[in-house]
Amino acid sequence: MTVYEAISEMRKLSKEGKSFSFTFVSYSHSRGESHGIVEVPAARLRKRGKTAHNRYAELQEEYVNVNTGEARRFWHCCLLSFNGQSLKFAAE
User: Which residues make Cβ contacts (< 8 Å) with residue 1, sequence separation at least 6?
Assistant: First the structure.
């Protein structure tokens, strides 16, 4: 499964009110740093941000951690797994 197929499935599940698990490598563009791999055991995607408010909105997904209620975001290119399945960036 590619990153983009996983994101499409995340959107579908979120629209149905279902949660999913995923992992990604953290990255802060403004600080230029990472804090390693983040594991999110239950999440739902939120509505995508607008580029008027976040110039990187097309490259990121916003989500809510169902367990904590915390709203966060991740970069598409940093997505590692979806529901336990490792992902690849492009079709091979």
Answer: 9, 82, 85, 87, 88
Using the structure block, give the residue that is written with the tokens 């598409």.
76
Residue 7, CA distances (Å) to 24, 28, 62 in order: 12, 20, 11
Residue 60 makes CB contacts below 8 A (sequence gap 6+) with 49, 54, 73, 74, 75, 76
Task: State the amino acid at position 91 in one-letter form.
Answer: A
Over residues 50-82, the pLDDT tens digits come to: 788 888 889 999 999 999 999 999 999 999 999
Token reading at 76? 């598409």
Positive or negative: CA dihedral 62, 63, 69, 72: negative
